[in-house]
What does this fold into?
Amino acid sequence: MSIDALPVVAAPMIDIRGLSKRFGSHEVLRQVSLTIPKGQTLAVIGPSGSGKTTMLRCINLLEEFDEGEIVFDGSPIGYRRGPDGRRRRLPEREIATTRSSIGIVFQSFNLFPHMTVLRNIIAAPVRVKGMDRTAAETLARDLLARVGLSDKANEYPLRLSGGQQQRVAIARALAMQPKAMLFDEVTSALDPELVGEVLAVIKQLAEDGMTMVLVTHEMQFARDVADTIVFMADGTIVEQGPPKTLFANPTSDRLRAFLKRYHDAYLL
Amino acid sequence: MIPQALIRNFPYLLRGAEITLLLSAASVALSTIVGMIVALLHVFGVAPIRIAVEIYLYLVRGVPLLILLFAMYYVLPYTGIDLDPLTGGILVIGVYYGAFMSQVFRAAILSLPQSQWDAARSLGMRRLLMLQIVVFPQAFRIAAPPFVNTCMMLIKSTSLVSIIGLWELTMAGREAVERSLAPFQIFAGVALIYFCMCYSLAWYGRYLEKRMQYVH
It folds into this structure.
């Protein structure tokens, strides 16, 4: 076989191997393995309690995990095995540095209510990355323009609608110039008429080649924007594949049942 | 009817009030510092430190302030430490109210939703920075009303120090009563001065609370 015939595999941005996590006796994640190549968008769907959000939060160690490993752009997340084979937690400084290169957007926005929109965005670039304040402000205004909120720089978050707050949260995460973005059900807390404006921003990011993981209930959106869909249930990945095949020909009963419930609930 | 005795003694009472104010201000400052340190140790300390903090809190909250003042005044000299009533009063009140202040601050820190910590951590902030720019500014707003409340209780508690011989507002009042034999007028005056101190603090607290609303 010639070299040319080998499939081109992009280097993975996020590589999850054998990830397991328990809350007491309840196993939230069971041996989850998943690879997200650079520049790709992956959407994770599944019923509530399937472990989607927990998995996402493990990627930047907002959630500790019990077993397995996550490698982000070549460096391990959270733990490393010592020479004696025992797993040790990395020093906080290292964890913080890795976190600063992974953006996450939360379901409930989590903006800092005591800071203006502009300060929300520049706080971490200036104080964590040591970026020059003027440069950070220029970047922030740039990002605000990208998410369509140029006129809101000096507002306080609580004065904004949910959709606007969520777009600020996206700008805040992007201001750290992350290598990847994680989205945790970012439209679930929004009124239906505000969902579109947030999804449009995410779609643009996908087109710009950002590596992204979306945990979402927006099936239509997942189908449009994702390169790969992952279906999770009971803490495991049941099925994954490109959206067209996965939605058209689900192979597992669980996914068929899940999609049917979804269609019944939303489309009829 | 003109309260002659009160009018005549009012300047004397005001001089006492000056000491009360000094004692109160210094004790508020000390108890705030103690409270802040204790709160941080209580929330973030390792287990042995947390246990030490709990012991301090139970001791202080379970013993009357007056008993602690007596201990300072009558017992401490045997150990070779002899404090004048003002310094001793500031120390005892500061440490005593530090316990209550610590609970005000601790509750404020813990009342911040987990999601704020998540957001700060996800941006790569480390603990000190997180505390400085995310946690404290919000916790202070939450703590402001109970903080003012604790300060008012502290101010009124300073009258106890008169019992161990500090000349302040309450002591000045008692002396004025002995001189004028007009207890009703004089004690009404003393009460009025305490009330004005506490009321202006409460008023200022409410002003701060309004000014610190998030939506401007």
User: Anything to note?
Assistant: Chain B touches chain A through 21 residues (CB under 8 Å). The first helix of chain B runs from residue 4 to 44. The CA atoms of residues 42 and 53 of chain B lie 6 Å apart.
